[in-house]
Amino acid sequence: MPQPEPLSDQDIAARLGDLPGWSVSEGLLRRGYHFAGHFPAAAMVLHIAQIQEELGHHAELTLGYNRLAVAVNTHSVGGRITALDFGLAHRIEAIASGHGAD
Ligand SMILES: C[C@H](O)[C@H](O)[C@H]1CNC2=NC(N)=NC(=O)C2=N1
After folding, report:
1. Cα 74 to ligand 1 centroid, rounded to whole Å
2. 42 C-alpha to ligand 1 centroid (Å)
3. What is the ipTM of this complex?
């Protein structure tokens, strides 16, 4: 599979403009979600896992009681941020409201 290109800081800043709630820190594209309780948060983890397997691209998912933290970069290019990370973030955003995430 061809390697994705690491994005420039300028490109990352522009793409973050289309992803409210997401930010980059410590080299990872991140967002935290809050839920009404534990089960909806856990259900969203499973849904994200399904999307990640479809895309072949996987974030770090940290599940708390009613919180879920998502953090992703692209391992195959040394942990830089690529369009694959933004693609996954957009797919996650698309399912978030359906899980009651805010
Ligand atoms: C073979 C498989 O597609 C690769 O190892 C994928 C799996 N998931 C991945 N996820 C992330 N975040 N970065 C990768 O480089 C990556 N590589």
Report:
1. 7
2. 22
3. 0.96
